[in-house]
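pinging the channel bc i need a second pair of eyes. not urgent but kinda urgent?? the chain im working w is below, pasted from the shared doc
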Amino acid sequence: MHSGDNGAVSMYEDEPELVGYDPGDGTPLRSPHMLIAMRIIVLLALLALIVPDVVAQIMVVTNAAQASCKIWVRYEDPGAGHSATFQLFGQGGLGWQCYAVGGFGGGQYIAPLGLIPGTPVFPTGNGVGS
């Protein structure tokens, strides 16, 4: 390597590894059709990885909401059926809402279950169980 007066290597000299390298004529290595096909394949592969996990998570949360709602309805109205629905603007706000269904009254709002339903915590002091 050639060094200047100050001992530094010039940035514009060829490195030994690049001696004889020809960068080509500037045309792309792959055709535009091949690039589009590769992008589509990568997108489909990512979707194949992500979609099953999202579907599984939705099923888990839906089952948890139904189970939690069933416990709430047994606590509030033991003879009624139950229905848990996800609502953006429900009575209890954003999240899963629990309704008792059946009988002459139709659906009756029971409790908000939240975004990720869990085991219900019942209010105390209402005379039930004491």
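so The CA atoms of residues 1 and 15 lie 8 Å apart. and The beta strands are 81-90, 93-101, 108-114. — does that match what u expected or am i reading it wrong
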